[in-house]
Amino acid sequence: MNLPIFDKDGKKTTKKAELNDSVFACEVNEHVVWLDVKSIQANKRQGTHQSKGRSYVSGGGRKPFKQKGTGRARQGSSRAPHHVGGGRVFGPSPRTYSNKINKKVKLLARRSVLTDKAQNKQVYIVEDFNYDVPRTKDITGFLSTLELSSKKVLIITSEYAPNVYKSATNIYNVKVLQDVSFSTYDLLRSNAVIIQEGALKKINEVLGA
Known about the structure:
The protein has 209 residues and is an alpha/beta fold. It folds into two domains: 2-42 and 100-206, Ribosomal Protein L4, Chain: A (3-Layer(aba) Sandwich); 46-96, no CATH class. 33% of the residues lie in helices and 15% in strands. It is built from seven helices and six strands, in the order E-E-H-H-H-E-H-E-H-E-H-E-H. It has helices at 21-24, 30-43, 103-119, 136-145, 162-169, 184-188, 197-206, and strands at residues 2-6, 12-18, 123-126, 153-157, 174-178, 192-196. A six-stranded mixed sheet has the order 2-1-3-6-4-5. A hairpin with a 5-residue loop joins strand 1 and strand 2. It is elongated. The mean pLDDT is 91.
């Protein structure tokens, strides 16, 4: 598959970029994509939730009333779960939600999403570029030329580009990542993926292996 290459101003050039078919033209596996996104979302959870059971609430150190002669059911503590102010039964406790999946599954998931993006003409290849100073105006003008101003955009740079990152920081719907550091979730939440030439070579090499 070949796509036209745009310059840093968003204008189409005469050059073409070759996309690896094993990455951008494979069979889309929706189940694998779901597994990877589920794992990514689960790993973000802190798992610090906790409620107080009967051993954590204060009070209830002595028997509330004597064992016999009151006509009521015997009670050992006023902090039992069925009492007002008592502990909670089977409440949440700290735990980890991390969910590990195989590397090949994560690889196939990213391939599937990139293929879907390419088939829907949501992949743009641009020449390698960086800015001398961070300016939001440069990114907004670039996206405006590509008619992507109102869309969620993922920009994948070929190398560490702090000025490109800082230029896009103030734009809510734009995210900048380096070469293959993007996840399946990053791809899914974007309406367009802009890939620099150098990053494309790395993607073809790493994800196409």
